[in-house]
């Protein structure tokens, strides 16, 4: 049998199958079978293309197979190699210049070697075929076992995590007036107190909000300093349980946050109360998928692909390549995606205010601003790609403050449209965390000082309080609007550090 395995060069197409299967097992529950299958097909097609290229070079199938296998292996395992060298060999040997040059030299050596060698490589072919067949069979068995063995996600929320029957828990309120609720989340928007104290910026948004009869919670704080964790806690009205190491959060913990956001308690309770859910956010909500491309959560197949060669280059040095084609086109399209999402969501929120509905609506708009990239200056002028790229890497405070000025204008547009077209609507305007400038502080308070303002048409704000944090925001709102009896939790902030994820992904 071993000799027969040496006759067919299957391993170049078995490698991508193994790679995707291994990724699905590591991230079980986050990647659907369809997504995994599609990724495996794409990678297998890539292996066949490389094999075809190798055949044109060598006119020999075993040599073409080795050529394709080497390139695919470098592509798949580049991130692991890079991380190993960073940890054990220092910055010089792990630099992209050295590493990519070494891979190029290795490729040339392999090509020359294969050109000169006349061996059919039967023993090596048989070994690699057998190795990946065994790995795939073991992985498939493990995958089947996981489908029959329930396991909880690593993160959960208290006290709602173990029971997802919102209708059974929901306190009925047949006589409650159920207004539309607009939840406008401005990513990275610091409170007026923080802007004045830390950056000497006098925010005139407060005067507008007060004229519009908002209550401003000036000393509000977020519970977490990264968006996925903050939103998971806000929308589940709870702190997150199970973060293994707050000083080094993991990719899987980001993915767990996506699960908690998708099946969150606020949506469950509002749906049970008869609300329609309108999702203009970057997150998928159960039954209400996002209409935007998501860039800062490593979700779905990105859990597998994020350490491949292309993903590492894009994340770490993509901005350096942005001045050359075809990298320039890819980078300019990629860095502008959040701006396209923002502009689309703003128009959708304004349009929804004029749209009548037979049922009350919960409209969730999540805007990736004034978080970097800082697309506009204070006069509303769109910056050029080079400036946006430079500022997104250095996050200069003046650029952030100018962007705040621009964002204020867009907030005014949305609030004015909502109050004119839908005057009975409740509006919740929040930042998910404060501004995160570079610091070596053990606990940077400003990272948590967030924008927080609420509008009730009846102007009854007695349940709100000045130092409210995210976990209590919707407890207060639901207690008022739907006469729930949700107890308030202690307000606190948990400082998270992430040593491995690019800043734009947080």
TrEMBL record:
This is Sulfatase N-terminal domain-containing protein. It comes from the Bacteria. SUPFAM superfamilies: Alkaline phosphatase-like. The keyword Transmembrane helix applies. It comes from Niastella vici. Keywords: Membrane, Transmembrane, Transmembrane helix. The chain crosses the membrane at residues 12-31, 37-57, 64-81, 93-114, 126-145. InterPro entries: Alkaline_phosphatase_core_sf (IPR017850), Sulfatase_N (IPR000917). It holds the Pfam family Sulfatase. The keyword Transmembrane helix applies. Residues 329-435 form the Sulfatase N-terminal domain.
């Amino acid at each position: 049998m071993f000799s027969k395995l040496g006759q067919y060069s299957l391993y170049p197409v078995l490698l991508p199958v193994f790679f995707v299967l291994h990724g699905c097992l590591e991230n079980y529950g986050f990647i659907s079978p369809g997504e995994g299958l599609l990724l495996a097909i794409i990678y297998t097609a890539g292996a066949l293309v490389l094999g075809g290229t190798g055949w044109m070079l060598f006119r020999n199938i075993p040599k073409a197979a080795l050529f394709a296998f080497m390139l695919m292996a470098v592509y798949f395992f580049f991130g692991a190699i890079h991380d190993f060298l960073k940890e054990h060999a220092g910055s010089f040997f792990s630099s992209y210049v050295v590493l990519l040059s070494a891979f190029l030299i290795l490729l040339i050596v392999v090509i020359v070697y294969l050109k000169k060698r006349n061996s059919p490589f039967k023993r090596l072919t048989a070994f690699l075929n057998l190795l990946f067949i065994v790995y795939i069979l073991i992985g498939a068995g493990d995958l089947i076992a996981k489908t029959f063995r329930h396991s909880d996600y690593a993160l959960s929320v208290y006290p709602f995590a173990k029971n997802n029957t919102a209708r059974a828990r929901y306190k009925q309120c047949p006589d409650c007036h159920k207004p539309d609720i607009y939840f406008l989340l401005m990513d990275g928007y610091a409170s007026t107190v923080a802007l004045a104290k830390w950056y000497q910026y006098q925010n005139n948004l407060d005067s507008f909000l007060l004229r519009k009869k908002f209550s401003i919670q000036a000393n509000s704080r977020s519970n977490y300093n990264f968006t996925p964790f903050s939103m998971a806690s806000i929308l589940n009205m709870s702190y997150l349980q199970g973060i293994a190491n707050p000083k080094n959060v993991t990719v899987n913990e980001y993915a767990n946050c996506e699960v908690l956001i998708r099946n969150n308690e606020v949506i469950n309770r509002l749906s049970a109360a008869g609300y329609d859910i309108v999702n203009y956010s970057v997150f998928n909500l159960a039954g209400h998928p996002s209409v935007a491309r998501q860039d800062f959560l490593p979700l779905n197949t990105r859990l597998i692909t994020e350490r491949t060669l292309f993903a590492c280059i894009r994340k770490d040095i993509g901005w350096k390549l942005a001045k050359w084609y075809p990298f320039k086109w890819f980078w300019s399209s990629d860095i502008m995606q959040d701006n396209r999402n923002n502009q689309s969501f703003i128009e959708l929120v304004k349009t929804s205010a004029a749209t009548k509905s037979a049922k009350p609506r919960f409209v969730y708009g999540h805007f990736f601003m004034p978080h970097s990239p800082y697309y506009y200056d204070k006069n509303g002028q769109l910056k050029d790609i080079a400036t946006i790229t430079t500022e997104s890497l250095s996050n200069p405070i003046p650029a952030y403050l100018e962007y705040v000025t621009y964002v204020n204008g867009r907030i005014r547009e949305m609030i004015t449209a909502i109050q004119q077209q839908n005057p009975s609507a409740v509006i919740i305007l929040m930042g998910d965390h404060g501004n995160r400038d570079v610091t070596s502080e053990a606990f940077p308070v400003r990272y948590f000082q967030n924008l927080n303002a609420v509008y009730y048409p009846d102007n009854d704000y007695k349940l709100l309080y000045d130092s409210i944090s995210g976990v209590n925001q919707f407890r207060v709102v639901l207690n008022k609007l739907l006469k729930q009896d949700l107890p308030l939790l202690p307000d606190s902030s948990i400082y998270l550090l992430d040593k491995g994820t690019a800043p734009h992904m947080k």
